[in-house]
């Protein structure tokens, strides 16, 4: 008797599904949409709904990675700087005075870090740009539609989303992101993403032009001084990279050193002229809020300078010392309004060094790749990291949600192109020349 064909084995069917390119593309869109739509999801579904979605995405990403593990290039990944910072945040739960809160917040940090690692591993940079562009186009269009509905048609705020309905006065608007600073930052990231799409011809010309106009309008209508500062930093960085790519390769390192010196000098001048810059940006009231918060944070940093108070990410309002800081300033904040100080406050000097090393190494690697590689797509991680680093001076967005995931993705992409561990491994296995 002839043997009957065997029925498909379940693991093989699972591998076919979760290992397919179509599934990874769809999951990438879902991950990016969830990260950037966190405020919208919290406003409509609450924390149980958001956490359920995140857990589901982590599970699917883990299964997908397992099925694709043989086809992925893991050399030099993930960067040690990510492991050190996340590991120190995890260890901080042992001395936190809010242990349960710290454990849950560390798990939240790990979840978005894992999702960022997944996206960076399974998608090329241009594929990441395209997925991000699709998500941000939808969110920005939704934001404008709701702002028109609130500010022009109904003339009432949409309170549960944080939309105040000020579009008739040309802003500030908040969109579906809760605050004008969040809208401004996301719109600036979108502008960079749409520009890369346009110059790489990844989308139709009309779609690219519409997307750039949309993002630019959202940046302006947000009227966010923080975003304007980050926009200036990104613009200078883009011009510098364009200039570097036109310089002869053998003399490029001299220009890199010159730009580094100019950047340091510019930072010193900006600090000395900070009062005038704040006045020009019309950010006096916002700066006073931040300054009062930073002063109070500095008072409590002395109690635990080395290890901090324990990782919590977004501040728990009713828990010391965050409650004491907000009580003293009389303007409750959900963060330290400065990612660098916030990290120092939560995980001490060791965490601060690990965090600055994470951003610094990712920025240096991505900058060198953008200045040396021919494809313009390498501009994306470099410029996004410049925006995140600049924004982190006045916001803590990079420590949670989409900001943290963007940092992980850019760091991974930079490490994939320039890993010292991978270079060392290649050197060890290279043939020794004959004497």
UniProtKB/TrEMBL annotation:
Signal peptide (UniProt feature, chain positions): none
Membrane-spanning parts: 21-41, 47-65, 77-95, 107-126, 138-163, 183-199, 228-244, 253-273, 343-364
Keyword flag Cytoplasm: no
Superkingdom in the source lineage: Bacteria
Membrane topology: Multi-pass membrane protein
A matching Pfam family: Wzy_C
Places the protein is found: Membrane
GO molecular function, one term: ligase activity
Keyword Lipid metabolism among record annotations: no
Residue span, O-antigen ligase-related domain: 211-355
Protein keywords: Ligase, Membrane, Transmembrane, Transmembrane helix
Entries under PANTHER family matching the protein: LIPOPOLYSACCHARIDE BIOSYNTHESIS PROTEIN PA4999-RELATED, TEICHURONIC ACID BIOSYNTHESIS PROTEIN TUAE
UniProt name for this protein: O-antigen ligase family protein
Organism: Luethyella okanaganae
